[in-house]
Write a structure and sequence with these properties.
about 240 residues; Rossmann fold; two-stranded antiparallel ribbon; 9 helices
């Protein structure tokens, strides 16, 4: 067997191990009626801003926590905690995405038991995992979430579903962020056009079941509808047998 073949075998083994761990974690959380949401998107796509706006719209009866993933720094976790919510920071040091083991360790820190797979009444009903900014690796690595949410901002352009199809094919929800961007003037003149209709068409071709929301944290567009969706999803989990 060549060296290249051995490397491929190792990679396949790592992916398989992660998928198995993610499935166990997902089943454990589901049995405890906890919804975990994986938030994915490029750096600067507006994940943290949208997360903070979403948290502000949650009812007091819904217990929520956040797992923040970054290569370095604790900036996002600090922002979440400053807003009054519980957050755990995972620093990967160069790893381009979170995996189920990392998230399980974070859940353990949050009080979910060993590896995030304990028993009994959970400390939270809803857990957001803000993944590392990346449209490639995060789409391929299962963290054990039951809801996968992709973020795409207008400044990134409307061709991303063509360039990074796996992200949009494997997500349950797409949030088009920065809906007000066309109104913003840049130094060179009006912002580049963004064809939301083309994005919807391309995404629906890849994933007919994909739910799509359009939001703006600056103007408030779509934020209530987006938050209501997550509240309904979480309450549905709490009522599930």
């Amino acid at each position: 067997m060549s060296c290249v073949s051995r490397i491929i075998d190792v990679k396949e083994s790592l992916w398989k191990d992660n998928e198995e761990r993610a499935a166990r974690l997902r089943n454990s959380l589901r049995s405890r009626r906890v919804l975990m949401v994986d938030l994915m998107g490029s750096p600067g796509s507006g994940k943290t801003s949208l997360l903070l706006e979403t948290l502000r719209r949650l009812p007091a009866s819904l217990r929520a926590a956040v797992v923040e993933g970054d290569l370095d720094s604790t900036v996002d976790a600090e922002a979440v905690e400053k807003a009054g919510w519980t957050a755990v920071q995972v620093r990967t040091g160069g790893f381009c995405h979170l995996d189920a083991a990392m998230v399980g360790s974070a859940l353990e820190t949050l009080g979910f038991g060993s590896g995030g797979m304990g028993t009994g009444e959970p400390p939270f009903d809803l857990v957001f995992v803000e993944n590392i900014g990346n449209l490639v690796c995060t789409a391929q690595s299962d963290v054990g979430a039951s809801l996968r949410v992709a973020h795409l901002s207008r400044p990134e352009g409307d061709d991303k579903p063509l360039k990074y199809p796996v992200m949009f094919r494997t997500s349950d929800i797409l949030v088009l962020t920065k809906a007000d961007y066309d109104e913003v003037l840049t130094a060179g003149g009006p912002a580049a056009p963004f064809d939301a209709g083309a994005v919807r068409e391309r995404c629906r071709f890849l994933n007919p079941a994909l739910r799509i929301f359009e939001t703006s944290c600056r103007t408030g567009t779509g934020l209530d509808e987006w938050a209501a969706c997550l509240i309904d999803e979480t309450r549905g989990y709490r009522r599930s047998p």
